[in-house]
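The record is kept unedited without comment:

——
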Amino acid sequence: MFVIVFGSSALSYGILSQATSVKLLYLSKIPTILQAGFLVAQALVASITRGHESERAAALGRLTTAYTVGATLGPALGGILGARGDYYRGARLAVIGSIFSMLLAVLLPKESSNTNQSTDQHHSSSNHDISTKKRGQIALAKSVWPLLITKTMTGVTNSILGTALPLVLRDIGFDEKRLGLSMSVSSALVAIVGAFCLGPLSLALPGASLPARALLFKTVAVLILGLAASSGISILLATIIALHAAIAHVLATSMTSVSVGSVQRNEQGTLLGIEHALFALSRIFGPSFATSSGLGILSLCTICALIDGILALLFPVLMTDILLISPSSKSKLHHNKSSSSDYHILEKEEHDEKKQS
């Protein structure tokens, strides 16, 4: 799948590097339909860390770190190349990078033959079940739908703030250079948190405890954002923006880790696809609301904090079963190598223990 993803990227950038008309420019976007590299990587990480919650959270964090580093360096390099007068040079370099990624994908280590055999058998007997009805059942599962709703609504608040805050920074005196530096600092902090903090945090706060805490911190951060923006203190605002970005990253990644751990292995890719689709939809509404509502930044932050606060209050109630995972049960889970659904196994074990007592 990675070969297809990066092959489509090479084709897209190849057409772009030769585009001399608007028609070719639009044509270069067609292959991007298959550019789902991050989604495929998430599905792979979820699969190979099955039954190991902290490892999964840490791996997803490092994956986002790599993506963030690329998203930070790529535009800067493209700007440098474009400033030299050849706007096609960046596209040609992207073709080389995509082909190199294809070669790396071919060299990716394969899972053990026994695992592959059991996985293939499981997939061959279950693939026909991943229908529209089955997708609905996955999304409406008891341990999944609260996470999907929370991720969608926080995606809306993040997109509102992500649109409004750069405009506020510009209004209080940030020029293009300082605005770019502020974005780079936020990206760097997200990368550091993803690489070094998510694993230990998921160990300290197992199950849905980590996203529950992150929701509370996010609510407080948004309130402080509104106050900092109203004060006009640019450095304070830029600092809080970076902290909010890091908290939002912890929240989103930990929710993904919990959700993919609560479904069968052959359902994880479908669930990740649903998550990405809902996240994309949430980012359609937010920017237009932020720019057309006519509300000030304090009012926007208050609305976002209210949404995040309601979610923070409801989340522990909706996710009670996963929040109450005991350390002893978590230890059992890490030794259960045949687990295909982290939390379903825990629920069954604790149910059996209650019956015996």
Observations:
- The first helix runs from residue 2 to 17.
- DSSP finds 17 helices and no strands in the chain.
- Residues 112-129, 324-349 have pLDDT under 50 and may be disordered.
